[in-house]
């Protein structure tokens, strides 16, 4: 556009100069014939110069305006587009006038509109998510709370036959309080991870030792449900930079998921190995098969498995466990996923040996 503007200016000047020169020559020939002979030559020269200047100015303005009309039209189009977007029509896109500077401005305006539209959409999604969060949490908390109130009413009114039934009511009420505590803990962890201001403290640790500690605490729970835990990893040290607390939470969520949905009696296999520049952790178990659609939803928040897949002896969660694990792994710069075939489930976590996220705090 700069070359076009400069070219229009030079062309207007040249044509105006030529046109004014022609008029000046004509005036030098015509004026002496029109003006009385008694008029002095200086006066004739002055009139000629005046006519020449005015003709030059006329030709220049006329040509420059004519040549600049397309550019003015493009600027008007940009102005109209900005006004439409300013009035709230974020679907409007400015037509691209070309590949010049004005075309670049039009592209930037359209990019701005897209970003504004994306931000508005994200704000609506956040608002919808908040309402869904309140709805799901209210429902999940109301169920165990209703049971606790029912058991406490039975105990308050002495509606039990013997001491064993009394203990059973207390035991059931206690289990419901534990279920409520887990729901609240999951909700707190989820909101903290998704708030955008989570700070991770990375440490260089031996993942073999960490996983061994987790399995020692997990095995008694699995044995109570007729499940054995098979450990499959080499005993040499395998170091990585991770946030220990967060990673333990992610691994624990995968193990508890396998605990809930494994066929019983059965086996849960835990593997840990170096996979190129990454470290691969997997949890394998057998359960009832699920569809491809269900596989895609497993890491979505509030998604719960069908009753046919769930172990009814295990307390129901809020459907946040795998979603929390997903967020934790992403914060570590890794990835989490599932491989499923005919009821054989393999959940995996792949982590870089040194975290790729650099905006968080790190301590050796």
UniProtKB/TrEMBL annotation:
Looking up Gene3D superfamilies in the UniProt record yields: 1.10.287.130, 6.10.340.10, Histidine kinase-like ATPase, C-terminal domain
**E.C. number, please?**
2.7.13.3
Q: Does the keyword Lyase apply?
A: no
As its record notes, the protein acts as a catalyst of: ATP + protein L-histidine = ADP + protein N-phospho-L-histidine
**Subcellular compartments:** Cell membrane
Report keywords, A-Z. ATP-binding, Cell membrane, Kinase, Membrane, Nucleotide-binding, Phosphoprotein, Transferase, Transmembrane, Transmembrane helix, Two-component regulatory system
Note the topology in the membrane. Multi-pass membrane protein
Name all HAMP domain ranges: 69-121
Any one annotated GO CC term: plasma membrane
Q: Which PROSITE patterns match?
A: HAMP, HIS_KIN
The molecular function terms of the Gene Ontology recorded here are:
ATP binding; phosphorelay sensor kinase activity
Kindly list the residue ranges recorded as spanning the membrane: 44-67
Q: Does the keyword Glycoprotein apply?
A: no
Q: What is its main location?
A: membrane
- Show where the Histidine kinase domain sits: 136-355
Output the PANTHER family linked to this UniProt entry. HISTIDINE KINASE, SENSOR HISTIDINE KINASE CPXA
Protein name per Swiss-Prot or TrEMBL = histidine kinase
Tell me what organism the protein belongs to. Paenibacillus silvestris
């Amino acid at each position: 556009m700069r070359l076009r503007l400069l070219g229009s200016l030079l062309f207007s000047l040249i044509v105006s100069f030529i046109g004014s020169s022609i008029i000046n020559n004509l005036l030098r020939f015509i004026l002496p014939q029109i003006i009385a002979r008694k008029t002095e030559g200086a006066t004739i020269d002055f009139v000629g110069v005046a006519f020449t200047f005015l003709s030059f100015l006329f030709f220049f303005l006329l040509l420059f305006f004519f040549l600049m009309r397309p550019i003015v039209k493009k600027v008007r189009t940009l102005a109209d587009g900005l006004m439409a977007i300013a009035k709230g029509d974020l679907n409007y896109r400015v037509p691209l006038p070309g590949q010049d500077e004005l075309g670049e401005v039009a592209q930037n305006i359209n990019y701005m509109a897209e970003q504004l539209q994306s931000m508005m959409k994200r704000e609506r999604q956040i608002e919808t998510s908040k309402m869904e969060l309140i709805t799901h949490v209210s429902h999940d908390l109301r169920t165990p709370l209703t049971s606790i109130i029912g058991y406490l009413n039975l105990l308050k009114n002495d509606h039990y036959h013997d001491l064993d039934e009394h203990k059973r009511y207390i035991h059931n009420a206690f289990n419901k309080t534990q279920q409520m505590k887990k729901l609240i803990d999951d909700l707190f962890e989820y909101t903290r991870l998704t708030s955008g201001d989570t700070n991770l403290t990375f440490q260089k640790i031996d993942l073999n030792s960490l996983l061994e500690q987790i399995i020692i605490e997990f095995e008694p729970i699995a044995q109570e449900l007729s499940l054995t835990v098979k450990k499959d990893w080499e005993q040499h040290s395998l170091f990585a930079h991770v946030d220990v607390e967060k990673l333990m939470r992610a691994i624990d969520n995968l193990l508890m998921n396998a605990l809930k949905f494994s066929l019983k009696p059965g086996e849960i296999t835990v593997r840990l190995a170096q996979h190129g520049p990454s470290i691969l952790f997997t949890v394998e178990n057998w359960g009832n098969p699920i569809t491809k659609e269900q596989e895609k939803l497993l890491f979505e928040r509030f998604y719960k498995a069908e009753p046919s897949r769930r172990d009814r002896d295990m307390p129901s969660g809020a459907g946040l466990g795998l979603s929390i694990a997903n967020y934790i792994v992403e914060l570590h710069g890794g990835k989490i996923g599932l491989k499923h075939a005919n009821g054989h489930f393999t959940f995996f976590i792949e982590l870089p040996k040194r975290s790729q996220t650099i905006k968080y705090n790190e301590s050796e």
